[in-house]
Amino acid sequence: MKKTKLRNIVILTVIYIIATLSLVILLNQNILNNDTNRVLERSSNIQLFLEKHPNVSLPKGFELLPKATDDSDTRKIAHGAAYSRDLTRSKITITSPIFDDGQVKNYLQITESRTSTWFITFATITFAILIYLSVGFQVLKRARELHNFTENTVAKIKNIERSPLTQSYLISEKDDRITTALNTLGESIQRQGLSHTEKKENLYEFIEFFQFPIFIYNNKGKIRKTNAAFKNEFTDTQNLDIFSPYADFLTFLVDKMLHPDIQEKLFYFEEIAAYYQIRITPLPELDSRFLVTMMDVTSYYRTLDAHNAFIANVSHELKTPLTSIKGFAELLESDDISQEEGKNFAAIINKESSRLMNLVQDTLLLTKQNHRIDKKKLNLTTLIQDILNTSRPQISEKNLHLEAQVENITFKTNQQMVHSIFENLIENAIKYTPNDGKIIVSLQTKDKKVIFSVTDNGPGLTEIQKERIFDRFYRVDESRSEVKGTGLGLSIVEKNVQELQGHIDVVSIIGKGTTFTVTL
Fold first, then answer.
1. Residue 36 belongs to what domain range?
2. Does residue 472 share a domain with residue 425?
3. Which positions fall inside the Histidine kinase domain (predicted)?
4. Residue 309 and residue 394 in one domain
5. Which helix (H) or strand (E) segment is 374 a member of?
6. How many domains does one find in the chain?
């Protein structure tokens, strides 16, 4: 804005200078024309006098040039000019022809002083400067008054916006129309505002008691009030543009400005990975404002998603053994199979039935809600030895080297949950350790805490696999047929460790092996 005004001033100044110079040039040209006409008139009078008195000597400044004279002045006349004019700073010289019977007889040259234009030029420029300065002074004065008036008006409006009910913003030294209009506006605002100020203040105080985000915005898209929970989740702002990353939600808020009604709707806020149940309630008595409550239902929907995924995975896992059992049972009903084939089919059915039972048992363990965990003193060393003895056949089958670094420890805990933790981790190590490999089982105490760890020299885990290793039904190997199990073992381990208020860590190196460490 300032650049535009400065540019306009420069343009007007240039135009004024050009106009002044043009006037000076026109005045000088007019004086020169007057001098030229004066000398030409003298020349005509002298020529008439010479016709009557040819032998009279001419006064100073007058000269008769012979016909044969050849200079720039006579050449101009020879080319058709009525006369020739030469100018210097102070002199004007006019050369005009004298005719006899239509032929140039000779030339009359008159030199006289020029009328001085200095005073007229000086006076014109001085007058122009005085006018410019006078107008400039008036313009600056008017601009300053306009600026002060604008600043005062803006200040009044800001005071109205900042505190329309308590500020004394209607005082003015001048009783101008805008101040009068502001007076009227202020009085109107005060009358309207005082009628519902108490309601507004009570509402603003009331929303602070809630632990979920709440904000109030008006029909101009300005957020007028937020509670502490909103500021924690988002930011302290006065503009709905804060929700620009969430286009659907912003559109929903804007639509309520056009069609105000009570409505609830679920939105997913991708940038903060949260689900909010939004409820908008119009407040027509409070300047057409809107109360927005944001209930965080992320946990519910994540639990629902996990539940649905779990049901889908369980259904898939149950389908495989059931399909095998049904298929081989149908084959047993056939009369075309031999006794040996029948035994093989029955063995397969028995194996798939055991797999199905293990899956059901693990699913029950995983979904069991332990509202109360009974604890008693257990000899953890004996518990680990029993598990290792039970696993001897599998260890011998793969010719694994077992190294047990187990201290004699008695600890108060839940027997079933700890047994499940130790058993699953030991069985998991046996499954993923290659033939002739090595397994290290360790049990020790540190700072009154029990530390149990199982180390194998299997293929190891990638970072992505480590992130997902405790997911339900997740298996590291791509082919589920290569390693037996339900895929729920480590999920059960993590659940039991958490319920016992313990902690589990995984350290793995590709090609070196993996160590699971449980701290209770």
1. 32-116
2. yes
3. 313-520
4. no
5. none
6. 4
pTM for the full model? 0.39
Distance CA 210, CA 233 (A): 13
* Cα 172 from Cα 188, distance rounded (Å): 18
Residue 320 and residue 262 share a domain: no
Q: Which of 450, 108, 123, 487 is nearest to 310 (CA)?
A: 487
Q: Identify whether 67 is part of a domain.
A: yes
Tokens representing 40? 């030409």
**CB-based contact 215:292 (threshold 8 Å):** yes
Boundary-marking domain end, from 299, 314, 341 = 299
DSSP code for 272: G
Counting every residue written for the chain, the total comes to 520
Q: What CA–CA distance (Å, rounded) separates 127 from 59? A: 41
250, two tokens: 């912003």
The answer to the question of residue 143 being in a domain is no
Cα separation values, 300 from 178, 275, 473, Å: 57, 9, 22
218 within a domain of the structure (yes/no): yes
Same domain, 346 and 404: no
Residue 18 lies in a domain: no
Domain boundary among 349, 366, 383: 366
C-alpha pair distances (Å), 503 with each of 209, 360, 366, 494 = 36, 26, 17, 8
Q: What is the rounded distance in angstroms from the CA atom of residue 61 to the CA atom of residue 365?
A: 136
Which CATH number does the domain housing residue 250 bear? 3.30.450.20
Mean pLDDT by 10 residues, the chain (520 residues): 76 89 90 88 83 78 83 84 86 86 83 86 89 86 81 71 51 60 65 60 78 87 86 80 85 86 86 87 82 86 68 62 73 74 77 67 61 79 85 85 86 83 85 89 88 89 81 56 58 81 88 89
Say how many Å lie between the first and final Cα of the chain, rounded: 72
Q: Which residue has the tokens 């056009």?
A: 258
- Give pLDDT, residue 317: 60
The residues facing 505 across adjacent strands are: 517
Answer whether 441's CB lies under 8 Å from 406's CB: yes
pLDDT in tens, 443-491: 898 888 889 999 998 888 888 888 778 776 666 654 334 445 556 778 7
171 within 8 A of 192, measured Cβ to Cβ: no
Tokens of 101: 């019977």
Is 247 found in the same domain as 262? yes
